Amino acid sequence: xxxxxxxxxxxxxxxxxxxxxxxxxxxxxxxxxxxxxxxxxxxxxxxxxxxxxxxxxxxxxxxxxxxxxxxxxxxxxxxxxxxxxxxxxxxxxxxxxxxxxxxxxxxxxxxxxxxxxxxxxxxxxxxxxxxxxxxxxxxxxxxxxxxxxxxxxxxxxxxxxxxxxxxxxxxxxxxxxxxxxxxxxxxxxxxxxxxxxxxxxxxxxxxxxxxxxxxxxxxxxxxxxxxxxxxxxxxxx
Length: 237
Hints:
The protein has 237 residues and is mainly alpha-helical. The chain has helices at 19-27, 33-36, 44-51, 58-72, 76-81, 90-96, 101-116, 120-129, 137-151, 155-169, 175-188, 192-205, 210-236; strands at residues 82-83, 87-88. The model is unreliable at 1-17 and 27-55 (pLDDT under 50).
C-alpha cells in the first residue's frame, strides 16, 4: 500500500521552464497544472523541524535560513551568492560548513538553484555531493537527477531515476508524478509496453479512491488508452 506523505520538505525542481519540463509539456501535454504544482517550496519552519539538529552551527543555520527565504522569493542569484552585509549564500555555506547538516542541505539547494539557472553540470555535481537522508530526500534527489539526465539527453538513465524516485517514495503525492514522467519518456522512446506498465501502476497503486483522485485517474486512463492503441498498431505491422 502507498504511504501518505508526511511533513517533509518538497522543493521546486524547476522554477523556470527548462528542457525537461518543456519535453513533457510540449510533446505530450500530460502534466496538469496541479501536477506541476506538486513540487512547491515548503516553508522554512517545516524545513528546519525536519532536518536541522540542535548542535549545528548557529551562524550557518541563520545564513541558511536567510538564503532559503530568498530562494522562496525566486531571488535565486541572491540565495546562491548571498549578501556581503547580511548573510552567506548557498555556495559559501556548502563550502565553509561542508561537514555539517547545514552545509549538506546547502548542496541540495545549490543543485536546485543551478538547475533553475540551466547550469546542469553544476547541478549534477552538487546533487551527487548531497548526502540524501530522511524519508523523502533520497527520492527527491533521484527525481531531480532524472530531470538533469533529460537535459543531458540521457533518457534511459532519466527513466531509471524517475522510477526509483516513484517506487522509493511510495506515496500518493510524489509517486504518480514521477511515474507519469517515466511513462511519457518511455512512450517518446517507443517503449510503449513500459509506458503501459507505469500508467497502470499509477492507477492500481495510487489512484484507487475515486472521491480523491477521480479527475487525475481519468487523465491517466486516457493516456493509457492512447499508448495501448499505439502498442497494438505497432504489433500489427
